[in-house]
Recover the amino acids of this structure.
């Protein structure tokens, strides 16, 4: 079966007055996969999502969701997708259940279905007990989960999430990731924007990096890290006394060695596994005891830094803590 | 975690659809039409009032306080002609006119809050008639104003106000009040779309609507105003409304011979003013709303 991509953007451009917010963004998301739209604040992520979800009209270019053109047939697009905006856009004065009923009612779903869906979704997002409480009393994580539950009431095949975990504490973030993985397992196509490299790494099958309105790189997290070139071999010797000898050995095969005495580590740029095997052989032939020998690939952070010349975003403390 | 949602075979054949929830099959999305969609939004707004009854203060305590303040504090020093029960009776149409003018306030605050919190975006991302957001907001606001009109009518009855003309005239007066409220909704949408925060809306509306609603025949007869001010007040569209309502309820005589033209034909002027205001404000309001939300 040839399947049309669930989401397609073709040379999307958006101008605000004389400012170019999105400048020719193209990508394609196969059904049932996850695209991570990665970029710093102001890169054009939200504007891109607003165009894809019919909220904002592209200055030029086209976009399709579930095969429907966002400009030609916005209604069909709205029928096929759910949107979870940047701020949790649930109604604070309504209960969780009433929020679901409101959106379900606007979709024209039957009351019987809405009731069943409400129960199922609240259960699924661990909100059953809170379902009849006013949203004002919810924590940030609960609001996000409710927001997602509300977006799912009509079971859209495509879901857009604009920075779904911004402002969440680490635990809620990991919980939300689990929920999203569940959705994908069940066949939903996701497009999520994030400033967190780690989030893209965790969730996305395919990553599109945008900066200043342009796509500057795309691929899987693995490809991105690989393409960013320099992997390094990290050698950890057992005895600090061997460091100098180990360094000398390494220098026979590589030009540049970085020495970290405290960690008893030597780092040498190496392009891939072959270099690493060679280095392993050298140490095998010597009498130097190693604690560890490993290949370190660049993190997405390194990738981003290389691509844009600036950090993705000040990582918040939360992000740092979440990092394994 | 999750369980096992079997995707129904029927879904597979439709090709582009994937994604299921536990135990749920993808429901049929029905287009229920503008009215049903608007009423769904109205119901949501009414739940807001139920949860925060203080939202009704502007059409309950506040106008009632005004009735009492003006009737008993200023009332003794303001002489009016043609009102059978004096100033208190004369006052009622003025306060109702002001309260209905404040409908714009209600719309603007509600709309700004919804835009600000992303609720409007969420609704616009749904397969509904885009007008439902504004129509729902407008119907809620008319209901809101109606509550105020009922409460003020009861307060009026308590302080001596009476309807002294026929049922049809009385009904026409109430209709004109709501018509005026309708025109004010567009002002509210305009302001609500243009302002960035509820605080800004409050500031702007307070600074403009208060003077505008006082610079009319609402609380004091225009005859005693300095002549330049009197001209402005008598051409104030609100004055036509208030004069029309007063006459239709039998709370005043005809406007003085030297009054400005609109006050001599208050019912007709009110209709012309409201139609005219709507014709000017509605396109501006829709454009502002569009600009604010669809960019």
């Amino acid at each position: 079966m040839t399947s049309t991509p669930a989401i397609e953007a073709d040379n999307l451009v958006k101008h605000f007055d004389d400012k170019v917010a999105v400048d020719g963004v193209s990508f394609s998301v196969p059904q049932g996969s996850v695209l991570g739209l990665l970029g710093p604040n102001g890169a054009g992520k939200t504007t891109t999502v607003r165009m894809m979800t019919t909220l904002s009209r592209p200055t030029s270019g086209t976009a399709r969701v579930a095969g429907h053109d966002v400009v030609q047939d916005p209604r069909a697009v709205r029928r096929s997708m759910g949107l979870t905006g940047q701020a949790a856009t649930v109604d604070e004065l309504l209960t969780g259940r009433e929020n679901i009923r409101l959106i379900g009612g606007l979709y024209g779903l039957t009351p019987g279905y809405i009731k069943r869906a409400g129960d199922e979704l609240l259960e699924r997002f661990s909100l059953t007990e809170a379902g009849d409480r006013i949203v004002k009393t919810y924590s940030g994580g609960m609001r996000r989960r409710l927001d997602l539950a509300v977006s799912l009431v009509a079971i859209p095949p495509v879901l857009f999430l604009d920075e779904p975990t911004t402002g969440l504490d680490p635990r809620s973030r990991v919980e939300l990731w689990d929920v999203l993985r569940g959705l994908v397992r069940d066949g939903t196509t996701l497009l999520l924007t994030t400033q967190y490299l780690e989030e893209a790494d965790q969730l996305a099958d395919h990553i599109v990096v945008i900066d200043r309105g342009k796509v500057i790189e795309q691929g899987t997290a693995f490809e991105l890290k690989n393409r960013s070139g320099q992997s390094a071999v990290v050698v950890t010797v057992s005895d600090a006394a061997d460091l100098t000898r180990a360094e000398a050995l390494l220098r026979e095969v590589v030009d540049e060695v970085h020495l970290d005495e405290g960690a008893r580590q030597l780092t040498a740029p190496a392009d891939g596994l072959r270099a690493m095997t060679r280095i392993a052989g050298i140490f095998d032939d010597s009498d130097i005891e190693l604690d560890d020998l490993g290949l370190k690939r660049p993190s997405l952070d390194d990738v981003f830094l290389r691509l844009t010349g600036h950090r993705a975003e000040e990582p918040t403390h939360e992000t740092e803590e979440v990092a394994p | 975690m999750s369980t096992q949602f079997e995707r129904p075979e029927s879904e597979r054949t439709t090709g582009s659809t994937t994604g299921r929830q536990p135990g749920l099959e993808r429901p049929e999305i029905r287009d229920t039409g503008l009215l049903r969609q608007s009423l769904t939004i109205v119901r949501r707004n009414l739940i807001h009032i139920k949860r925060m009854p203080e939202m009704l203060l502007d059409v309950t305590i506040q106008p009632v306080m005004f009735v009492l303040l003006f009737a008993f504090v200023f009332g003794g020093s303001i002489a009016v002609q043609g009102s059978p029960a004096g100033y208190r009776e004369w006052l009622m149409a003025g306060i109702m006119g002001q309260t209905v003018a404040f409908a714009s306030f209600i719309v603007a605050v509600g709309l700004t809050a919804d835009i600000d919190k992303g609720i409007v975006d969420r609704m616009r991302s749904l397969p509904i008639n885009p007008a439902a957001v504004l129509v729902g907001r407008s119907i809620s606001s008319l209901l809101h104003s109606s509550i105020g009109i009922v409460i003020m009518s009861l307060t009026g009855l308590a302080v001596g106000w009476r309807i002294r003309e026929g049922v049809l005239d009385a009904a026409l007066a109430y209709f004109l009040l709501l018509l005026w409220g309708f025109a004010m909704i567009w002002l509210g949408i305009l302001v609500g779309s243009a302002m960035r925060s509820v605080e800004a809306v409050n500031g702007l509306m307070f600074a403009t609507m208060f003077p505008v609603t006082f610079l009319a025949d609402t609380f004091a007869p225009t005859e005693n105003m300095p002549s330049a001010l009197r001209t402005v007040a008598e051409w104030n569209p609100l004055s036509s409304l208030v004069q029309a309502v007063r006459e239709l309820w039998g709370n005043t005589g005809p406007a003085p011979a030297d009054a400005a033209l609109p006050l001599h034909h208050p019912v007709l002027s009110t209709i012309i003013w409201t139609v005219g205001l709507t014709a000017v404000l509605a396109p501006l309001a829709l454009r502002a709303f569009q600009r604010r939300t669809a960019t």
In short: Chain A touches chain B through 62 residues (CB under 8 Å). Chain A has two domains: 7-226, 230-297. DSSP finds twelve helices and 14 strands in chain A.
